[in-house]
Write a structure and sequence with these properties.
The protein is mostly helical. The chain contains 13 helices and no strands. Helices cover 74% and strands 0% of the residues.
């Protein structure tokens, strides 16, 4: 067996240390510094400005601004409708992702492209379109209201419809790659061992896609809580009935009550952060459980 030849410049018995692997991007310190600087300019400073403006208020003024009857009603509608819309998207978005991954049918590429339509469509256009469809004389609204007796446009139901529309792509695009990478051999093995279709889904498929479903729920919920353009047209914006919190913040700004607007924004920011933190903890718990 021939010996490995050492480089001519290296003394006998000594091996030169391997050089660091070639990286396209700059080193860690420079990249980390740029990341922190960018996040500071884009995220931390604007959020800090909201808190600093709110701190100019007294505690009594802050509490009065964020707990008035009209503001509480807008909280309930915004977070409640966002939560319901995200739940709808988890269920139906999961089905859409499953169909797009597991089945072949004519027009599949068109359906796949339509999923991204809420991303590309301006929110104001989406709001006007939904209002035209679900109003009392709209294509859908005339039958829903006439047959079922449910009024959609200019009610909290319309808010849920709009928030479900804009949140669907987040769930589908989060679950879809997980289903594509899932090992179908495990499903076939479960079926060969006598498991029913429901048992295979519950014990094999669902644990695999659960973290992605939670991620999609978090993204859809976060997107919905800050939605404005697609909601104001279909909501009707009636105080204490169908007025969302982002619209109430705009109303405060139009009244030059900047401190009151930032106070409400702080409440929404903290509530959204707590919700996202809770979902991230659930994701970590789910991954740890599946890894065992």
């Amino acid at each position: 067996m021939s010996a490995v030849a050492l480089p001519a410049s290296a003394p006998a018995g000594e091996i030169k240390p391997r050089k660091a692997p070639y990286r396209v991007m700059p080193g860690f310190k420079l990249s980390l510094g740029f990341t922190i600087l960018y996040l500071t300019l884009i995220v931390l400073i604007p959020l800090s400005a909201i808190f600093l403006k709110t701190f100019t208020m007294t505690w009594e003024g802050f509490w009065a601004a964020v707990t008035s009857e009209r503001v509480i009603a807008s909280y309930k509608l915004t977070f409640g409708a966002s939560f319901i819309g995200a739940l709808f998207n988890v269920f139906f978005g999961g089905i859409v992702a499953w169909v797009l991954v597991r089945y072949k049918f004519p027009g599949k590429r068109i359906v796949d492209a339509l999923v991204d339509l809420p991303f590309a469509l301006p929110t104001a256009v989406a709001g006007i379109t939904l209002t035209a469809l679900y109003s009392s004389n709209g294509w859908f609204g005339r039958y829903i209201e006439g047959v079922l007796g449910i009024k959609v446009a200019f009610t909290p139901v319309g808010v849920v419809v709009a928030l479900t529309f804009i949140g669907l792509p987040f769930v589908v695009r989060t679950v879809q790659p997980v289903l594509e990478d899932a090992e179908r051999e495990l499903e076939e093995a479960a079926a060969s061992l006598g498991a029913s279709a429901f048992q295979t889904f519950r014990r094999v498929v669902f644990p695999t896609i659960l973290p992605s479903l939670l991620t999609g729920f978090a993204l859809a919920f976060a997107r919905a809580t800050g939605e404005f353009g697609s909601v104001i047209f279909i909501a009707g914006n009636m105080p204490l009935v169908s007025e969302i919190t982002p619209l109430f913040i705009i109303t405060k700004l139009e009244q030059y009550d900047y401190a009151g607007a930032t106070a409400i924004a702080v409440v929404m920011l903290v509530a959204s952060f707590i919700m996202l933190l809770t979902i991230n903890l659930l994701q970590a718990w789910s991954r740890g459980r599946n890894a065992k």
